[in-house]
Structures are given as structure tokens and as C-alpha cells.
């Protein structure tokens, strides 16, 4: 195996391990539009990184965190629906990023690479950061797990039972924002939400408990990474989209297998 393919596989598996459990909450709490909002706004993070001479990943992470906090605060307003808030931030940030990018004549930004992902360009430092950062994100999720499951079932009942509802909700948004930022280089802006949603949706039919669903989502995501990279290598197709297509294939195949509903 060529070394660049080994790096891509290691990085893709790191993302699958992290995206699986978080994708379950994205599916349970119907946060796919929130993920899309972060993904669309990522281009502005790339542009800000170029303007401030920062690593693009840092720019994306900073903007994603800012948007997550903004969404959490704006959702407290009763005069704006959640989808309205997300629509304003999503398209506003994307449009601003495109406008600023058009004014940066000397900027060298591989827009297609960020749109579709560039997993084959990962180096071992990127892989180490993904595994290390992923471990931190999963540890934070483990701390919030019981509260998040409780508020997913019923927020009022969770509050009565003593769970910090607002803290758990905002914490999930921040953690998902970081997962989305980490996934950009692997599958790109256009496809990042799919890697969160599709494995979790596939696992949902076969799981008896939330923990089982999270574990199955990790396995589905890992299978998608292996199959997608293999197809990309064999047929010379874009690697990021190939991973998502593989996840879609596993999802469609799962529909033919008897599940729990």
C-alpha cells in the first residue's frame, strides 16, 4: 500500500470513529440543517484563514465555533424559528465568503479541494491531530452522553431529573461544530453532513439501544471509508465523494435486510 493511501485510510477511519456517535445525535435531534449551515459557512473560515495568514483548519474551526454559539443564542429568541436562524447564517456566511474571496486576487485557495475534500493530501501530522482531537471530542461526548440522551427523549423531563438542558444542548452544538470542521479536509464542504447522517441512519434500523446505534454507525462509517478509498483507487474517482457514495451504497443495501423497523 502506498504511504499516501495509508495516511488517507488512517485519517478516514479516525473521522468515522468520531462521526458515528455524533451523527446519531444529528439524526435523533434532526440537526442535519445545522450541519449544512456549518459546512456552507466553512468557505468563509477558509477565507479568514487566508486573510489572517492562519492554517485553514484553524479558520474553519474558529468560525464553526462562533456560528454554533450564535445559533445557540439566537434560538433563545422566540421571534425567530430555528430553521430561519440557520438559513440566515448559512447563506449569509457562504455569500460573504464568496464575495471576500473574489476580492482576494493574490489568494491561492483550492476551492474545489475544500468543496469535495482532499483526503489523499493528509500527512501523518494531520492523522495524529485527527486521532488526538477525536479522542478529546469523544471524551467530552461521554461526559454529556446521559444528559444528551435525556434531552433527546424529552427536554422537560430531563430538566425535572436535574439535567442541565441548556448546557447539554449548547455543548452538543459546539462539539458537532468541531467534528464538521475536522471532516472538511476528508469529504469537503458539500458532503460533510452526509458522512454524519448516512452511517447513523443506516445503523438506526438495527440498534436496540443508543450505545448500539453509535457503535454500528462507527462500523458503517469505517466500511464506507475503506470501500470509498478502494473505489477511488480502482476507478480514479474523487476520494471524498467516493466515501460518501460508498456510505450511501451501504445504506441502500441495509434497506434490503430485515431490521427493527
UniProtKB/TrEMBL annotation:
The chain crosses the membrane at residues 6-28, 40-73, 85-104, 124-148, 168-201, 213-233, 239-257. Pfam families: ABC-3. One of its GO terms (cellular component) is ATP-binding cassette (ABC) transporter complex. It comes from the Bacteria. It is a multi-pass membrane protein. SUPFAM superfamilies: ABC transporter involved in vitamin B12 uptake, BtuC. The keyword Glycoprotein does not apply. It is found in: Cell membrane. GO terms for biological process: response to zinc ion; transmembrane transport; zinc ion transport. Keywords: Cell membrane, Ion transport, Membrane, Transmembrane, Transmembrane helix, Transport, Zinc, Zinc transport. Belongs to the ABC-3 integral membrane protein family. Involved in the high-affinity zinc uptake transport system. PANTHER family: ABC-TRANSPORTER METAL-BINDING PROTEIN, HIGH-AFFINITY ZINC UPTAKE SYSTEM MEMBRANE PROTEIN ZNUB. This is High-affinity zinc uptake system membrane protein ZnuB. It comes from Magnetospirillum aberrantis SpK.
